UniProtKB/TrEMBL annotation:
Residues 9-62 form the B-block binding subunit of TFIIIC domain. Pfam families: B-block_TFIIIC. It comes from the Archaea. It comes from Methanomethylovorans hollandica (strain DSM 15978 / NBRC 107637 / DMS1). Signal peptide: none annotated. This is B-block binding subunit of TFIIIC.
Length: 120
């Protein structure tokens, strides 16, 4: 695995961010190489960096850049969550009562929008 991807994984494990001086220790690389990795990730917009102090030493707090919140809107039909999300049944969709009930609950305008996008 490329060192940048490993760094992203390590930074992502720390929800509140990770100090740069901690990151190079966790990656088992020297601080100079860590600085180059961070520079690349910053340039690519994959992380953010802010000044911080850790145990009296100046460092940077690194975080994953703008994590997008998952959008579950397409899995909802009114108040019903799609029965297929996480379903482990080996059913045929044409005969699934739970799926049929969910589809029948879809607002008509959403169905027309979805049909239009499929035919385009």
């Amino acid at each position: 695995m490329v060192i940048e991807e490993t760094a992203i994984e390590v930074i992502g494990k720390h929800e509140e961010g990770v100090f740069q001086n901690q990151l190079w220790k966790e990656l088992d690389i020297d601080s100079r190489k860590c600085s180059r990795v961070i520079a690349k990730l910053l340039k690519d917009g994959r992380i953010t960096r802010e000044s911080a102090v850790d145990n009296g030493a100046r460092t940077f707090l690194l975080k994953i850049a703008h994590r997008e919140e998952p959008c579950f809107e397409l899995l909802l039909s009114g108040e019903m969550f799609s029965p297929c999300a996480g379903c482990r049944d080996a059913c045929q969709p044409e005969y699934c009562e739970r799926l049929t009930s969910w589809v029948m609950n879809l607002p008509q305008d959403n169905v027309e929008d979805q049909e239009a996008s499929v035919t385009e």
